[in-house]
Amino acid sequence: MTSVVHSPPIPRSGIKLEHVSIIAAHFPVCHGTINITPFGQGFINDSYCVKTQAGEFVLQRINQRVFSAPERIMDNLQYLQQARLALGNQAPRLPQLFPAASGELAFVDHDGGTWRVLELIANSQTLMTINQPNQAREVGRTLAEFHTFVAQLPRQHFKLTLPTLHDSAQYLAQLQQRLAPLHTIQDTAIIDAISFINQRTGLIQRFDTVQAAELLPLRITHGDPKLTNILFDLSGQSALCLIDLDTIQPGLLLHDVADCVRSCCNRFDEDQADGQVIFDQACCRELFAGYFAIAAPLWTPIESAWLFDALRLLPLELGIRFLTDHLNGDQYFRVTEPGQNLLRARNQLALVAAIENQELALRTLINQCVSGY
Fold first, then answer.
1. DSSP annotation string for 68-100
2. 3-state helix, strand and coil shares in percent for the chain, rounded to the nearest 5
3. Where are the domains of the chain?
4. How far apart are CA 328 and CA 336, in angstroms?
5. Residue 56: pLDDT band by 50, 70, 90 thresholds?
6. Which end of the chain is more exposed for a tag (fewer CB within 10 A), N or C?
7. What kind of architecture, by CATH, is found in domain 17-120?
8. Predicted pLDDT at 6
9. Rg for the chain, CA atoms, rounded
């Protein structure tokens, strides 16, 4: 478990780099720091690149507005790291965690903020879009190798770090609660989004029912296997590993695969202008080919039967979350300009429609991929 070591208070907003430097000094691997700079494009955690005489590392503060029990994250990651070391070359590559001077993998500051230091994977990059069929196959392969690895580990060793993750019914209820006091809405974009969502509440209810009946097996999942959470080599041809492991916990393979497809097979960035959404079925085919060539034995027939609906559900769920956050004043997902979360919501809902328009072809593709291995 994480121990508390006191340090000077750190402001909760606009963290100054000199304060980050104080935190870095509590990790032996960061001794001899040359400079520290903000790092990454993530929506959630505060991340910094720490350049030292020995190399470069990632220093992160876990966002406790999102993860109320960061010690659960660190316990999961410690167990995962130990399991990976035990399996050696049979385990997929994952970023290494480095201990604080206390010997713990996390340092808790005077304000209660939880910090950790991770390996910065050298000669790597993240891709914003899939540009070649092989890249989609590599994404599928990487997720499949992770699922196969964690399937060997006892589920009871993993704690829930985000209990409401992919609880679509709860996300819908939160949106409805936010809308209840709004007697009139003038923005036609919001009105259209609400109408679209209301027409698909049955999908959420059906998925909620089958989960409540425990017909879909719980597995260990990544929780957020989007394209930007997969590192590629500098050529962009070979995927190296999954990153951003905070949401590893018991969940559904359906959610992981559908979320991965959602982020990879939309041909345009979620922050681009409305109307630019295209679901790339060829990309989906390659991703499925890479994934099911390895992970097909893990899947049950009922999971395969629900995969198309999961492909619809995940962008619908995310669209609901973006819309709710827009109405709440952008408290969860970071934005760079007003209305960005509304734009993201509209694009996710457009992706749902694009997937639904290809239902027959996608159901056929799923059957071919799952049964082909």
1. S-HHHHHHHHHHHHHHHHHHGGGSPP-PPEE--
2. 45, 15, 40
3. 17-120, 125-371
4. 16
5. very high
6. N
7. 2-Layer Sandwich (3.30)
8. 29
9. 21
Decide if pLDDT at 302 tops 50. Answer: yes
The Cα 165–Cα 149 span in angstroms is: 21
In angstroms, rounded to a whole number, what is the distance separating the alpha carbons of residues 130 and 236? 10
Q: Identify the three-state secondary structure at position 341.
A: helix
Q: Which residues pair with 52 in a beta bridge?
A: 33, 55
Q: How far apart are CA 20 and CA 136, in angstroms?
A: 37
Phi/psi for 217 (5° steps) reads -70, 140
Which helix (H) or strand (E) segment is 172 a member of? helix 168-179
The predicted-structure confidence for 116-131, as pLDDT tens digits, reads as follows 999 999 999 999 999 9
DSSP 9-72: ---SSS--HHHHHHHHTTSGGG-SEEEEEE----SSSEEEEEEETTEEEEEEE--TTT-S-HHH
Q: At what angle do helices 281-295 and 253-264 cross, to 10 degrees?
A: 150
Decide: 291 and 141 in contact? Cβ < 8 Å.
yes
CA–CA separation, 311 and 41 (whole Å): 25
Question: CA–CA separation, 80 vs 152, rounded Å?
Answer: 11
What whole-number distance in Å separates Cα of residue 103 and Cα of residue 26?
10
| Tokens 């590599």 belong to residue | 138
Distance separating alpha carbons of residues 74 and 183, to the nearest angstrom: 44
pLDDT in tens, 123-174: 999 999 999 999 999 999 999 999 999 999 999 999 999 999 999 999 999 9
Q: What is the per-residue pLDDT across 234-282, written as a single tens digit (0 to 9) for each? A: 999 999 999 999 999 999 999 999 999 999 999 887 777 666 789 999 9
- Are 326 and 337 contacting, i.e. CB atoms less than 8 angstroms apart? no
Over residues 182-209, mean pLDDT: 95
CA 19 to CA 27: how far, in whole Å?
Answer: 14
State in words which class domain 125-371 has: alpha beta
345/317 Cα distance (integer angstroms): 10
Q: Is the pLDDT of residue 27 over 60?
A: yes
Q: Is the dihedral of CA 263, 65, 77, 152 positive or negative?
A: negative
